Amino acid sequence: MLDPIVNFFVRIFQWIGRGIGLLIGILLWPFLWAGRWYTQRGWMLKAIVGVALLALIGLYANFFYATQWWNNFNPDYPTVTAAGANPQAVGVVAGDPIAAATTGEGSTGAGSAPGAPAAPGQQQTCKRSEIAAVAADLIDFNVNQNAWISSMLASKLGFFGIPWRNTPFFDNKAAFQLGINQVMRRTTTELVDTLGRTRGTSQIDQNLQNARTALAWDEDAWYVGLRGPTRPTPSVYRDAIRSLRTFTASLEKCQATFDARSDNLLQFLDRIAGDIGSTSDILRGQIEASDAGWFDPRADDRFWFSYGQLYAYYGILNATRSDFSAIIRERNLTTLWDTMQSQMRGALNMQPWIISNGDESSFLFPSHLATMGFNLLRARSQIVEIRSVLDR
Questions:
Q1: Dihedral sign computed on CA atoms, order 342, 302, 185, 270
Q2: How many CA atoms within 13 Å lie on the side-chain side of 6?
Q3: Over the stretch 110-123, which tens digit does the pLDDT of each residue have?
Q4: What would the DSSP string read from start to end of 130-184?
Q5: What is the reported pTM?
Q6: DSSP assignment, residue 129?
Q7: Are 299 and 175 contacting, i.e. CB atoms less than 8 angstroms apart?
């Protein structure tokens, strides 16, 4: 009496097995065809094709390593950069004179007040810009300590011609780097237009201009482009590192300008708030476009771009606190700034292994994009509150 039921389930499983076998056959057919074609060729053609295949395998193996190993990733990196600052510059705004070591005999310069002019026999130094220093370190992290993914040949080839950003594979690190780079472009623009000039009317600092121009280079440039030979992106971005560090060195010698005024700080925070708001809107658009949970191929690159932006702004805002230390102290912004920094650092603890873009009320599929968007908006609200205090 149970035989018809048993036979029904047997047929169901047979159909499932045949379907899986057919799917595997379709996937393997190109490789089987290529294998038969290869075995029928002459030895010379076999050697050429074999070398090309080995090169392709090596290319993708290197790409796999570059995308999966994140060298020197450290959410607490601002403390490392701050350790390189001059301890005598505490409480001094960027570009202002600080006590310097004595060059003559019988005096060390000890006891000189921050911001005081150099005494006879002393070499005058000024406080460096931590914003420029952190920016240089972040670019170095992107292109020297790690491979720049977007301009790698395997990245440009994609997954059988499909861009990696449209797949769930190997695009997380690239998106993270692009998020950092977005912040670097914004930061160098502000350094050129306002922070590195006196009231925005003096001559533009050439080193800062060079850094901004370098970071405007195409993010996915390889050695050969549509217009012929060109410079790869990492090579050009290294020029930006050198330019920023040259500016920092000039500022320490009091040979450059950093205009640490409250209205410049207000404008810089405005730009950052606008940038973060734009990214949160991108996340909202992806949330509304899909609720595929773990199976949304665009969720991971959206998330990691936002994470990269938050990672970079955490360091830049920490540096901003140092560069505008006197203003922050005078306007009683210390507590607000502490809260903002604490919230941003807490958001960087969110590092899910697989990104899900499920419905926000889903029980099984969390919405990591919604959580990241919430963290961005919390940071933005703190920035806006600080900005409103400055504007009073």
A1: negative
A2: 3
A3: 334 445 555 555 66
A4: HHHHHHHHHHHHHHTSS--GGGSHHHHHTBTTB-GGGSSSS-HHHHHHHHHHHHH
A5: 0.83
A6: -
A7: no
